[in-house]
Amino acid sequence: MAVVTFVSHGGERHEASLEAGRSLMQIATNNAVPGIDGDCGGEAACGTCHVIVDPKWSEQVGLSGADEEEMLAMNPERRPTSRLSCQMMVSTSWDGLTVELPEFQM
Amino acid sequence: MTLQRAVIVGASHAGAQLAASLRQEGWNGEIVLVGDESALPYQRPPLSKAYLAGRSTLGELAIRSAEFYAKQEIQPLHATVQGIDRTAGRLVLSSGESLAYTKLALCTGARPRRLRTPGADLAGVYYLRTAADVELIREAATPGGRAVIVGGGYIGLETAASLRALGLEVTVLEAAERVLERVTAPEVSAFFERIHREKGTDVRTGALVEALTGDSRVREVVLSSGESIPADLVIVGIGVEPNTDLASAAGLLVDDGIVIDDRARTSDPGIVAAGDCASHDMARYGRRIRLESVPSAGEQAKVAAATMCGKSKEITALPWFWSDQYDLKLQIAGLNTGYDEVVLSGDPSRDRDFTCFYLRQGELLAADCVNRPRDFMFSKRVITDPTIPVDGLPITLEHR
Fold it and tell me: Which top-rank group of organisms is this from (chain A) (predicted)?
């Protein structure tokens, strides 16, 4: 089973299994990961599914696209590997991926 | 020990979020999520877009998976609630059965306002609220067919865009002098009218529907001007009415929607409500407002869940909305009611991206952002907390 780990701002870890064909945001909400709301349901319209990808993984999972970039630009917690998890279609080859959550989703 | 059972009436955005939040807030008892549609809670905004266009399945629109509800021990119940017995603490279902509750949440949503003109009950006249509604429209929407949309609001315009993409001839009839009149500035209305006309939609404003005529199906829409517009299908998008019947019958205070306070409590503090059915006294705007918005439904649901668990959270988030039409993403931060000045960034008469900032006495109140996510995020932050320093302002605000 391929596993992704979400690390909350306070350091709490939540593991979830990676299901191909879903977005990372859906994996998080389906596994009740606190701190990922996904208010708009995956339309890159709200910015409430922000995650910071472990830099070791950023090459494999990719950096933010233009739409995400625009949504993240104003975010004070934004980091170079920030992504909107609704825009990340997961692959089972991401086994071991770790992403951090910001303190606030906005 | 007696069994604790939270019952949520209504299984759409608010109900689904409330159920999930109850577990996050530490509710240990049963959770029953009662809905009158057979599917698990699904995303409604894509109905007029990807789902109508046939680009997504109902399964893909599920807000959360079946496994989620199983793991979280949330029981979906397909049933219609007929009444609330507050004294006994139980619901009466239309099957005749009853369902006892310890805590009750009403997330009953809203239903489309019906067209009252003669002929409105003809076959071929549709409303758009549920997946089942859209499946009927999809069946009737054959390429080359003629669709008439009554109402130039968000639903009407989104539907127009989707039907054009499916190859139909589309006419939008708006009774007011401009589309989106209730919600946007004239500049923004003119922008959307231009875009839809460029895409080949016949947008008519000041167009009052007098009657629908036909035989076994609707064939024509007759306007008060006397003109008739041929129609193979008619879609009515003239707003919604909150589902407050249960609440009223149970003696809860209802005024437009089910009246709730900052903690999502109804006039019976043991019963909470959230979503399109709820009317909330918003300190930010100094009046009671019933919001029809997915994000607000989610926010109210989170607060309602905390209240049910004996915690204290308040509904404070800034209202916001979004709408997708063609390749345009409109994001709206805040409510513009009471604005006295409009500042445009970009030219809506020419461009395909711009922002319309709404100000009151120099202070930012709201923003309509078309293909400008950065302006949207900026506006959301600044309206929420005007003291936040933000670099790279798209506009200069006097009070800064």
Answer: Bacteria
